Amino acid sequence: MSLRLAAVDLGASSGRVMVGRVGPDTLELSEVHRFSNGPVRVQGTLHWDILRLYQETLAGLGEAARTGPLDGLGIDSWAVDYGLLDAEGRLLGNPVHYRDSRTDGVMDGVLRKIPAEDLYAVTGLQQLPFNTIYQLVAERALDRATSLLLIPDLLSYWLTGVAGAEATNASTTQLYDVRFRTWSADLAGRIGVPLELLPPLREPGQVIGPVLPEVAEETGLDATTPVIAVGSHDTASSVVAVPAAAGDRFAYISSGTWSLVGLELPEPVLTPAAQEANFTNEGGVDGRTRFLKNVMGLWILQECLRVWGTDDLVQLLKGAADVPAFGVLVDPDHPSFLAPGNMPARIAEFCAQSGQEPPTSRAVIVRCVLESLALAYRRTLRRAQQVAGREVDVVHVIGGGSQNELLCQLTADACGVPVLAGPVEASALGNVLVQARALGEPLPDLDAMRALVRATHRLRRYEPQGRPADWDAAESRVFGTR
Ligand code: LFR
Q1: What distance lies between CA 269 and its chain's CA centroid?
Q2: Residue of the CA atom closest to atom 11 of ligand 1
Q3: Is 445 a catalytic residue?
Q4: What is the pLDDT of residues 268-300, one digit of tens each?
Q5: pTM above 0.95, yes or no
Q6: Which SUPFAM superfamilies match (predicted)?
């Protein structure tokens, strides 16, 4: 016997609906619908096209229903962004994209009123300019809103009519008290957000409700199909699917538009050192802590491809593999790489300002991005281990970036430990695993879920090569001795 479950997994550059089959020895996914996603600029503001995302979700669920009856469905997406609803439950405008410039300078203003130490002591969150707390300070429609729903919660609300806030994603808002696992009334009050705006919290595994009759009619789903809260933050779902064995000393890199680099811990680390290093303590499934940092990720490369008008990554990677190592390097987390735009030009600019010859060929630019990412991974992992007092023997690279062989090899070389790459669709796997448990599949804990991922997915291993001293030299070249 196995369960048939739909995972709706929305990333910043693409979304997909997958049908998963989960049983005692079975964990299979098949993609039934894939669609593009990205910012839409309207009169100077970057939005998400949320109604199209909903429509694509319905289309995907319709495809899924055509493959046979479903036992449940769950939604995960990127974090921090939200829709505001009025008293009748209607959406007040298109959600704003976290890369929009409305938050420029907002963080500094808030930190003058709320000391960074106080924020960290309560939320344990890394400072990113687009955290929900800063978006809300910049929000214009706040006085008309009665409820705030994070993106996956908004879509679940449209599917079921039931509002709520799933905890792993709520933990990314910087309004969530990581110690007591509740909304922070104090922080909300201090930025002028009424607590009533924030809906009741729910845990991954909770059944949200059956799909509405109109949804059943449009998709062909059975009207009793439950929508289940999963780790609705995509990174929380992908960490569920890290194929580590019990007792392994592992780190992970959830590699997509962002690279989320860190450790899984039983408790948050709220020390001054953790704050200083700007590590986040995001909530994981089963109460785990995702102790990690955002590294800019494949975003820079995606934007290069967009500007070059090509999607032939394979050819570009071939070229980059032949470029000599340790040429041009950048700090991928430099704020100039955050907003959409001409990344090749911004890389050239970074090089000019740091006394390097700006790269002209595409191959050199791609090599530069990948080596710079590997360097940032190395630096982040070292800090994570120091600050959390843990050692790591292996790095699991999961998500789309696990298919990038050059990046995986560079990551192993830079970090000086083996990389295990895969699974690619980690978020969707974590999504269906949590649903399966909610519906009674005997997957008592994360170890059991991960054992099933290991037993059913082939991983690729990369051994570290090259000289560690070269990476030391590269690191001090880019970051100084900091
Ligand atoms: C990855 C991710 C990151 C989050 C960023 C913005 O898709 O969810 O975890 O920091 O997107 O929401």
Answers
A1: 20
A2: 78
A3: no
A4: 999 999 999 999 999 999 999 999 999 999 999
A5: yes
A6: Actin-like ATPase domain
